[in-house]
Write a structure and sequence with these properties.
The structure is a homodimer of 321-residue chains. Chain A is of the alpha+beta class and 321 residues long. Chain A has twelve helices and ten strands. In chain A, the strands form three sheets. A five-stranded antiparallel beta sheet of chain A has the order 1-2-3-5-4, covered by helices on one side. Chains A, B: One of its GO terms (molecular function) is homoserine kinase activity.
Chain lengths: 321, 321
C-alpha cells in the first residue's frame, strides 16, 4: 500500500517507448494492491497501471499470472491484460524490478457493497471459473491449507499477545478443519483473494477484477468462500450481512450451480478462509513495527467470522469469548 | 508521501455530488505532496485531485493557499484552482479532515531537469512573482529564517549523530548568515518549496505549479534561491550543474531582471535555503523511525550545497570535511 520503488519520469518515458503506446502525459504513484509499487500512467493514447513487483511476488510466478489475465481478458472477462512491447514481451525490468504495464480499468472498490453489487460480483466469479475451464496453467496455492500449520508454528506463542489463548485456539480449529477438509471437490484456477478491494464497480456493474497475485490452482469453491468471508462482514468481523452473503452465492450459482456436497462443505471452506487470513494478518501484525506508516489489519477481524461459519466450535474458543 | 486517511468510494461519491462535477468513475490514492492524503479522482466529466489535509497543513491557512491558487489561475498561470461547490465553498470536511477538490493538471515531475527545462521553470517562477504584484494575502513564513535557530535548538546535539560537528557547524553558519541576511530586499507571495517535484512539465513546457502549502510572504529572491538549490544539484548535493542553475536565473530574469544588489545577495539566500532544508530534513531524520515505510531524505544533501554557495565558509566546517 505504498510506492516502494521510485521511477523517474525520464526512465518511465524511455520505458513507454518500448510499447508504442504514445507519449507520457502523467504518472502518479498509487497506493494499491499487495506489496508492489504501482503507478497510474497516462499517455497521449491511453491509461495504464505500471506495476513493479516487490518481494512478495516472485518473478517466476509472473508468467502464470499474466497468462491467466490474458486468458480471462480473451474470454471477455473485465480483467486487465498486460501490454506487450514491440517484441511481444509483457514482463520487463524497470528500476531493478520485474515490471508490467497493464491496461487501466475504470471503476471503484466498494467499502460497503449492497446485495445488488454482491450479486454482480458473485456472477463475475462464476463467469471467471467458467472461463478457466480450458486454462491449463498451474500454480500451487502459496497460502493454501498445507501452509497454515507451518505459519501457525512460525507465529508461535506471540499470537497470545493478540488475544489470550489464540495460539491453542487456532491449533484446535485447524486440527478440526483438516480432519474434514473437502479436498475431493473440483479444483481450477482461482483468484484466492477477491476482496471488495479487488473488484472495480460502477454502480451495480463489475468493471474490473484485479490483483491476481495470489491466483493459484485450488478448490473452486474455496474461492467463493474467501469472497464470502471478505464481503459479508463489517470491518471488525462482528456483524454478518446475510443479504450480501446470500447474494454472492446466488450470483455465483447463475453460472455455476452448487451440488449438495458443495453446499455441505461451504462452511468448512469459509472457516478455512478465516484461518488463512487470521494467520497471515497475525504474522504481519507481529512483524510490522507499531510506528510504521502502514495500517496493520486486525487479525481478529477474520477470526471472529468463525462465529458465523462454525458457531459450535467458536463457542469453545477462549480467544472468542 | 502516503495515504493517511482512507475515503470510501461511497463517501467520495456523496462528496462529489456537492460539486456537480459528474459521477465518480475512478479514485486512486496517490503518493504525492507533503503529508496530506491525496486521491486522483475521475468523474464522468473531468479529473481532479482530492486533498485531505493532515497535521502539517493548518486548516486556518487554507483560505490563504486557496486564494493564492485562485489568483494565479485567474492570471493564466498553470496553477490548479480549487473547485467550489454549489454554494461557492472550496474548503470542505471529509472523513474528519479539511478537504479540497482541485483540478487535475497533466505533466510529470522531472528527476533530472535539462537546462531548457530549467529555463522554462525559471520563467514560470518569474511570471508567478509578476502575477502576485496585486495579491494582498499575507502569511508568515512558518519555515522562515526566524525559525531556524529555534529548530536548530530543538534538534540539539543529536545532529552530531548525522555528521560529527554538525550542530556547531550549523550554529556557526547560521550566525554568519543572520549577520548579512538581506532583509531589505523586496517581498511578495512566494511558493517557498518549488522543487522539481512541484513543477509539472511536458517536454520543455511547464504545465503545472503545484503544492503551495509552504507558500507565504517572504523575500522574492529567496524563492528563486530555494529553487536554485533544489534544481541544480544531484540528489546527494555533491554535483552542481551550473548550466541548470544558470538557466533558472536566466529564465526568471526574462520576467524579473535582478538588480546588482540582488545578484550580490543571491548566495546568502541560497545558503539560507541550504540551512532551512538541512534543518527540516535533520528534524525529520531524527524523528522518523528507521523502519518506517517512508524514505528519510538525507539532511546532508542540502548541507553539502554550501560548498557551492559559501565555499570559504564550507571549508572551515568539520561536518563538510
Amino acid at each position: 500500500m505504498a510506492v516502494y520503488t521510485q521511477v523517474s519520469a525520464e526512465l518511465l518515458a524511455d520505458f513507454l517507448a518500448r510499447f508504442g503506446v504514445g507519449e507520457l502525459v502523467s504518472a502518479k504513484g498509487i497506493a494499491e494492491g499487495v506489496e508492489n509499487s504501482n503507478y497510474l500512467v497516462e499517455t497521449t493514447q491511453d491509461r495504464f497501471i505500471l506495476t513493479l513487483y516487490e518481494k512478495r511476488v516472485s518473478a517466476g510466478d509472473l508468467p502464470y499470472f499474466l497468462s491467466l489475465l490474458d486468458h480471462l481478458a480473451a474470454k471477455g472477462l473485465p480483467v486487465p491484460p498486460a501490454i506487450k512491447d514491440r517484441n511481444g514481451n509483457a514482463i520487463h525490468e524497470l528500476a531493478g524490478r520485474p515490471a508490467c504495464l497493464i491496461r487501466f480499468l475504470p471503476g471503484v472498490s466498494l467499502s460497503h457493497p449492497t446485495p445488488a453489487q454482491a450479486l454482480a460480483a458473485g456472477k463475475a466469479m462464476g463467469a471467471m471459473h467458467r472461463a478457466v475451464a480450458d486454462f491449463d496453467g498451474f500454480r500451487e496455492n502459496s497460502m493454501g491449507i498445507a501452509t497454515w500449520q507451518p505459519l501457525l508454528d512460525r507465529c508461535g506463542d506471540s499470537l497470545n499477545q493478540i488475544a489470550p489463548g489464540l495460539h491453542a485456539d487456532i491449533a484446535f480449529a485447524l486440527g478440526d478443519l483438516m480432519a474434514t477438509w473437502p479436498a475431493q471437490l473440483d479444483t481450477c484456477a482461482i483468484h484466492a483473494d477477491l476482496f471488495p478491494d479487488n473488484v472495480l464497480m460502477l454502480g451495480d456493474r463489475v468493471t474490473g477484477l484485479i490483483d491476481f497475485y495470489f491466483a493459484c490452482t485450488d478448490l473452486r469453491l474455496y474461492d467463493l468462500a474467501v469472497m464470502h468471508a471478505a464481503w459479508s462482514f463489517d470491518a471488525t468481523g462482528r456483524d454478518y450481512d446475510a443479504a450480501v452473503g446470500d447474494a454472492l452465492i446466488e450470483g455465483y450459482t447463475r453460472h455455476y450451480p452448487l451440488s449438495d456436497e458443495e453446499r455441505a462443505a461451504f462452511d468448512d471452506l469459509a472457516a478455512g478462509a478465516c484461518i488463512r487470513f487470521t494467520l497471515s494478518r497475525a504474522w504481519d501484525w507481529l512483524n510490522t513495527p507499531v510506528d510504521a506508516l502502514v495500517t496493520r489489519k486486525d487479525p481478529l477481524a477474520f477470526w471472529r467470522r468463525l462465529r458465523v461459519y462454525k458457531p459450535a466450535l467458536a463457542a469453545r474458543l477462549e480467544s472468542l469469548s
